[in-house]
Automatic annotation (TrEMBL):
Pfam families, alphabetized: ADH_N, ADH_zinc_N
Domain Enoyl reductase (ER) positions: 8-339
Record-stated family: Belongs to the zinc-containing alcohol dehydrogenase family.
Keywords, alphabetical: Metal-binding, Oxidoreductase, Zinc
Required cofactor(s): Zn(2+)
Claim: Protein biosynthesis is one of the keywords in the record: no
Naturally occurring in which organism (per UniProt): Falsiruegeria litorea
The protein, known as: Alcohol dehydrogenase catalytic domain-containing protein
Record has Nucleus as a keyword: no
Length: 344
């Protein structure tokens, strides 16, 4: 099969012909219909993730059609499926209590096992997969696998956002834009922070109540003014010190910070502990979403309760993935890219 392979960090992915994946006993092989290009992939491509090495195939936001099923698989050849990026084992305490996104035996394609920057991907633990409606395009579905689902879980589970609350979102990539769209669905007021005016204008077009350019003003002070005392919830979507601290500092007393952005490298950063202490803030981490929450979210999208089409800006070929990763080294254009062409 054709795949985009990491050979040297920060250099173009190598487009190679590699062996087709073997089918796991407890899973399936999917013919990949679409795969998102995510900032987490960028961290791996730059050498910032310990499980990405020479020979790795990235890609954890994917959907496709079953072409082979193992003897213990739940699904069958021909099924059209979408995958959460975290594949829980299904047998541990975490999986049995509904938090499979915390499973200690979890598998994440692209990080330790081959991912979906390829024509085919092997998916073990296929009980995590969910049927995909024929009415949803592969490009849109692929973007759900990490960004939209992670944002939904952050808002509804970790932050428990209530209608009328102010939600601040720091960074308007795939996660940030998803947070905006979903927080508005929940009835929240949303202020969006970025350093690119084009992305802030894009956010306004899609429902942002206010925007802040972090390159021009003090973020925390601006949000305190806009919200009349600080946001109740703040979502950090980049994984860096400056936005994490801006997120903490922009909160009202008893506010809730949710760390969605994946810190790269050793993961260490300096945070304003005085803000956490003095304002008695809650600091939540979050990663992914349990697969049992997928059907409800998919149903809401298909009913038209929320329009997530603004999130997908570009459909690209496999050979274009490198340029998308390289662009993440600086300010990026609105929306995200999804690989939908694997032959070139």
């Amino acid at each position: 099969m054709r795949a985009a392979v990491v050979r040297n960090f920060n250099e173009d992915l190598s487009i190679e012909t590699v062996s087709d994946p073997s089918c796991p006993d407890n899973g399936v092989v999917l013919e990949v219909a679409a795969c998102g290009v995510c900032r987490s992939d960028y961290h791996g491509w730059t050498g910032g993730h310990p499980k990405v090495q020479n020979g790795s195939i990235l890609g954890h936001e994917y959907c496709g059609t079953v072409v082979e099923a193992g003897p213990s698989a739940k699904y069958n050849v021909g099924d059209r499926l979408i995958a959460p990026f975290i594949l829980g084992c299904g047998t541990c305490v975490a999986c049995h209590t509904g938090v499979s996104n915390t499973c200690a035996q979890q598998i994440v394609p692209g990080f330790g096992v081959p991912g979906a920057y390829a024509e085919f991907v092997a998916v073990p633990y296929d009980h995590n997969l969910v049927y995909l409606s024929d009415t949803m395009s592969p490009a849109l579905a692929a973007g759900l696998g990490c960004r939209v689902t992670t944002a939904w879980h952050a808002l509804t589970d970790r932050a428990d956002v209530k209608a009328g609350e102010w939600v601040a979102v720091h960074g308007t990539g795939g996660i940030g834009l998803s947070v905006l769209l979903l927080a508005k669905l929940l009835g929240a007021q949303v202020v969006v922070v970025d350093i690119v005016d084009e992305k802030l204008e894009h956010a306004k077009m899609h429902g942002a109540d206010a925007t802040v350019n972090a390159a021009k003003v003090d973020v925390a002070a601006a949000i305190h003014d806009i919200t009349g005392g600080g946001a109740q919830v703040s979502i950090e979507a980049l994984g860096i010190d400056v936005t994490t601290n801006a997120s903490l500092e922009c909160l009202a007393t008893l506010g809730r910070h949710v760390q969605v952005g994946m810190p790269s490298g050793d993961g260490l950063m300096q945070v304003n502990m005085r803000a956490i202490y003095a304002k008695q803030l809650s600091f939540f981490g979050t990663r992914g979403m349990p697969s049992w929450k997928y059907p409800r979210l998919l149903e809401m999208i298909e009913r038209g309760d929320v329009d997530i089409r603004p999130m997908v800006a570009r459909e690209i070929s496999l050979s274009d993935a490198s340029s998308e990763l390289r662009a993440m080294n600086g300010p990026t254009a609105p929306g995200t890219a999804v690989i939908t062409e694997f032959k070139r």
